[in-house]
Protein 1
Amino acid sequence: MKRGVLSNDHSDKLFEQIYDYVLERIRRGEWKEHEKLPSVRTLALEFNVHRLTVFKAYQLLKQNQKVYVRDKSGYYVQPGHGLSLDSRNDPIVSAYVQESHLSEIHQVQATYQFSKALLDPNLLPNLYFSEYVKKVFDLYPKVLGTYSTIQGDQELRDALCDYFINHYHFYLNPDELLVTSGSQEAIDIVARVLIKPRDVVFLERPTYSPAIDVFRRQGATIVPIEIEEDGYDLDQVEKLLQTHKPRLFYLNPTFQNPTGYTIPVEQRKRLVELAAQYQCLLVEDDPYRDIYFGKKPPLPLFSYDTSGTVIYIRSFSKYIAPGLSIAIVACRPSVMNLLVRAKSLADSGTPHLNQKIFLHYFFSARMQQHLEKLRIALSIRKEMMEEEFSVTDWKWSSPAGGFNLWMMLPESVPMDDFLSKSIENSITFVPGSICDPLRESKSWIRVCYSYLNEQKLREGVQRLISVYSSVHQ
Amino acid sequence: MKRGVLSNDHSDKLFEQIYDYVLERIRRGEWKEHEKLPSVRTLALEFNVHRLTVFKAYQLLKQNQKVYVRDKSGYYVQPGHGLSLDSRNDPIVSAYVQESHLSEIHQVQATYQFSKALLDPNLLPNLYFSEYVKKVFDLYPKVLGTYSTIQGDQELRDALCDYFINHYHFYLNPDELLVTSGSQEAIDIVARVLIKPRDVVFLERPTYSPAIDVFRRQGATIVPIEIEEDGYDLDQVEKLLQTHKPRLFYLNPTFQNPTGYTIPVEQRKRLVELAAQYQCLLVEDDPYRDIYFGKKPPLPLFSYDTSGTVIYIRSFSKYIAPGLSIAIVACRPSVMNLLVRAKSLADSGTPHLNQKIFLHYFFSARMQQHLEKLRIALSIRKEMMEEEFSVTDWKWSSPAGGFNLWMMLPESVPMDDFLSKSIENSITFVPGSICDPLRESKSWIRVCYSYLNEQKLREGVQRLISVYSSVHQ
């Protein structure tokens, strides 16, 4: 991905983290008074960010009298920087911030909803849902009167354990599964249990926006890992593993959100080995696995893991039953024990009813047939959208699965203007910058083809293109 | 409540907090080198704890060379205590601990389950549940295919807003309500949004055990407020408000868990005024309101609040539908905005299905009739349990509502032994110490009368009494 020039309003988050990072090393005494600090160029390389971002952090450090400048020679630690006397005056800037960038865009009401990566409810077999629900009440007449265990309904974990073993060759037992209220809860709990302020977290660039928000809220130092159509640059990843000793790498290797890219098998194997070697947990988020348009995607990273390095998060909300909010986490007992304790304080267990309905619905023959129909319906919508967009000068790689197109517009497009004019025209999309841990990617957008029916989809795209023409001559 | 003598294993949590507190004030320079520290007696009074707890904290500070002792004259700040040089060497001991004391006991399988404050599923109108569920699917055929908004289903918030206005004279609009996945999530989100390490939190003593765990995990400094049958000592509370400037007071003023006590009306009014005056938020947890055995309880604190001081958490899980996990939070927009953002990262909204089922079930005529039956059934069980326990030398105040008896046993009872022998006999109860922010209350236990049917309840109590006789001659 090409990086744009940083503007003040979009580089805030990352620059704060570099600010924190420098401050912390001074505080720890690793960098002493009058000692020369790493150059802007070095830090930019180390963090894989634009030099302006580092420059901005240094400027603020200078302004706050933590560093000083010697002409043409660089930045130095200010004597009497005050860090040792009262650490409360320099709190971690980034921790405790509860921000949710994606949900802000999702609050916009629009006729042509391309921002939410949701399934069109009409693509679900709604008429048959109540059958399964009735069945659940016949089988478990007291289901509404009882809590589930915190880790999740035993019957559901047994069934999913068999499913994972049969479909993906997981080496697994039901005690290594935790049922959560959707994948958002899973990501949140994993982050809360594993990440303390200043721990390093690798995130794909671009990535799922709420994951950025969650890890930033934990006060993590975020290092971006570029994802391209053919995967990661694993040599570069290895270097970053050496330099940063990250606690975890949150990744979405199959029909990635937002890009739709899929990491090839060989990279999966090597990444799992590297992660084990450098003791970096891999948090594999896998919400789109069943939505493939050609051949099935490669096995999850978890399938290749022999050393307990991978935490596997599988959401079933997106295409099975959004209204149930069921996801599952697979991991080894050492991490599972921590997750279960956190879950007991977070919500004392996912509702029992939802787990039982999901169990009977997901494993029904109808659901499995339905998935086939769903793939066809979504691939038609995707192709229709691509056809409509083919008249533009936008660029994208056609995804082999998932719900989204990740599109690069000309750099000259005034993106803020384009977004606000689109909203005025009752159209929403996700601006690329909120999917980017660096808050750059300003000429990219994510457009979802799964939510609108074919007619609305065509209308909406045509309308979006005409808004585009009006802001970009 | 009478305090027992602290033993090493039970006073751990509180002593750590006092340790943190002293350390922090030294670090901030409020207490300088060679300055005399507050006496053990003073700190014990200030924190409302046993002197041994303070003594233990000072002993560890001394051992870690942060303070020194001058014969007969007390504790002094050690020069060169090292706190200023590297704050990372003395992290907050208490933060980031994900502990869940109650859930550990709940994992014990037992025939005579007196530990979980749950409703007997047979007391719910299970046969009629499926009617309402079918109704929901008729009314909202796509309910499983759609997400709710993050703040909660509009129709449900509208209905609950009317309900609160009509029943409790709340001054409220639907935007001041947030639907959560049970009250545990509500407490967790409130704590995450409002509490940073070393913020002071008031907790009732005794209180709901998971609340202790949640606020401790946030790194709060916990100050206990004694609750007695006739309420709080509000003069003492006012002094503590002055001294500690707490961020919030988490309380359960109606049929309190575990004691069953209810704070009288006059105290409610005065407490709301005091809290407003000292800018302390009141987090009012109100899960048992409808389970009264005589007259209705006084109005919630929220009813008396005119300055946005009260955050009201109302769970409907306990006696309406545990399997749905629905609770609601009422608060003013300044706090609500923070809660909604945190909720969006915690689980992106409570499942839509559960909200719609709850809406139609709770507001049905049948549910309201059913509550009357429930009160009668539970009061019979409570009286039966009290009758069985009347042969013992245990002491308790008969609760006017709720699910629990809070009982004081003779101090000479070997509580650990009693609990483990009970578990061997397939009986569980909650030891008082885990309900106590000070981890004392060692001769108290919480016994729940709501879960077992009448026959099992009688059998279980008789069996418990015989275990008691065997450990305590």
Note: The longest strand of chain A covers residues 200-205.
Protein 2
Amino acid sequence: MLYLAKIYVTYKPSILDPQGEVIKAALHRLDFNTVEGVNQGKYFEIKLTAADEAAASELVKAFTTELLINHNTETYRFDLEEA
Amino acid sequence: MLYLAKIYVTYKPSILDPQGEVIKAALHRLDFNTVEGVNQGKYFEIKLTAADEAAASELVKAFTTELLINHNTETYRFDLEEA
């Protein structure tokens, strides 16, 4: 069965997000002053086949931890749906 | 009221995603051969205050189109929740 995994990678809370600070400052210069915090991360949409949702979930965890994130600074979550 | 906007920025379908192709090839080299397609994009979590959800939604659309995306190559969608 074909699945679509949507993976959201963000910095761990303890990690400073300089890019987020830069974007917040830029938004304030554009008068979007009610913006209080910005975190920028990576977003992946990955199509994969697997026997069932549990197998697909295990695959996503495996390749995300092996390739897509930096364990020292990043954390992730994902959604899985039939494609 | 404080809101959290989750913004997902991806390439338009017509645009080649070289980074996605590189990641797919790397996943295949790691024997994740059931991966069929990879798209990489940007993910933002932005906290903002607004009078209500409609106002927050308008703000998100305004600053996303003004600063966060490249109109020629990218498209976006977002979720909005009370923070």
Note: The longest helix of chain A spans residues 53-68.
